[in-house]
Amino acid sequence: MSFPSQKSLKIGIIGFGPFAQFLSKTMIKQGHSITATSRSDYTDLCTHLGISYFRDMNAFLESNNDVILLCTSILSLSQVIKSVPFHCLKQPTLFVDVLSVKEYPRDLMLQVLPHDSDVLCTHPMFGPESGKDGWKELTFMYDKVRIRNEVTCSSFLQIFATEGCKMMEMTCEEHDKLAARSQFLTHTVGRVLSEMEIEPTPIDTKTFQKLVEVKESTSRDSFDLFSGLFIHNRFAKEQLRNIELALETIKQQLFKRMNEELD
Hints:
CATH architecture of the largest domain: 3-Layer(aba) Sandwich
Number of strands: 8
Strand order of the largest sheet: 3-2-1-4-5-6-7-8
């Protein structure tokens, strides 16, 4: 995928937690300027990174950002976005989210944002751990929901294309269907293994070692993220039912075979 139009962007970030910090370092490296605001005070960190940090949301919105990146948690997005004083915006702005669900932020942004704001829904399928050695061949999903300023949108997408990401354009609905069968399923299996308190043993097979890795990887993410994947992806409920049905089917097959063998 080629994004020929590119310019240096002024990118404002709402929510400057670990993922936003991770993304901003690459954006700065590419020559983009960053402003940030967050519930917690990141003044010292932003000063160190060369980022303009605003405690006041009004001042943040008045700083003429080309792009405003929403890096909140899934569960806090509604509260955050509905509290933003959009009347302080001085120009039409591209709003971009990076949440792990897509229909929910899309619908919320279309409902709440000013009508002259552009909307780009994205999901970088990587994070600070998987992307610590670079983003080459890591998947970046996006959906151009409402785009009038193609140059700004293209320049933002170029950030990820330049780093070698596998650029994947798809609808928010298609993303959520696939994510329910992959990301949510993985997190659910990891949480089940965590509840079972599985640990390495002296006789582990390679397959079991992978299960331990899944448990440990998903346990590093918050339960808020996991519950957000369930609550705000309408396809996740079906997957949870499928897991329950599959487990019950296997259980019945095992007891049926046991009864046949022991008769």
